[in-house]
Amino acid sequence: MTKSETKLLVGIGILILLIDIFLLKIWVADIEPNIFMSNGISFPRFITIGINLLIAIILYFIKKRYSILFVINAIVCPLLFTLFWNSWLDNHPFDYSEFSFTNDNRNFVLHIEKNPDGVSLREIQKNSMDYNLTLYYGEYEKIGDSLKLSLRFLNNDQYKIEKDSLIMRNRIMYIFENKLIGFPESPFEIKLTKKE
To answer: Which of 4, 15, 119, 126 has its CA 20 to 30 A from that of 96?
Structure first.
């Protein structure tokens, strides 16, 4: 192989590496990994290995010297993917806040998670086998100084609501200045106590 052919091969290798970095960063950002996705990293790594080996096999019959780039890339891509995955987890750590409140002599806990974003509303039943009975679950979004909670009622036959309607099943609630607004069983704002 001549010097110019070697330079061309190295240049193509660097270009492939830059494309890998760009595409893998976008792929990881699209997945938005969290600590609960323990198996989520294996499948994409196998895909990157498979794609690169398939391209290497095809190029072996067309241009043998370029196929080695994709064999090397089959090793580099999973390592880059793992690096970007771990970097995402470091920059987007799991975090949660918990608030408690009482209503009608019953105790409740509001659990708000970050990465993955989610919210659940549970009733604490100390005499029950379950102890925590999840009533609502869903998502939230930050709007100014408040959180908008979009929740769905879980109908598990252990908890009865007065009105069995769609309005009661899908509920929008808000948290503003440590107060819960829109709780279906109270027309008033409910003071929340943040649990440490």
So the answer is: 126
Amino acid residing at 64: K
pLDDT exceeds cutoff 70 at 174: yes
- Using CA atoms, how far apart are residues 110 and 123, in angstroms rounded to an integer? 9
Report DSSP state, residue 104.
T
Strand 146-153, strand 170-176: pairing: antiparallel
CB 109 within 8 A of CB 100: yes
Q: What are the tokens at 100?
A: 């408690």
Name the token pair of 192.
Answer: 């929340």
User: Could you give the dihedral angle defined by the CA atoms of residues 114, 115, 116 and 122, in that order, rounded to the nearest 10 degrees?
Assistant: -20
Return d(Cα 113, Cα 95) in angstroms, integer: 6
- Among 79, 3, 73, 15, smallest CA distance to 41 is for 79
Neighbouring C-beta atoms of residue 99, cutoff 10 Å? 20
Q: CB 6: neighbour CB atoms within 10 A?
A: 11
Give pLDDT tens digits for 23-47. Answer: 999 999 998 888 777 666 788 889 9
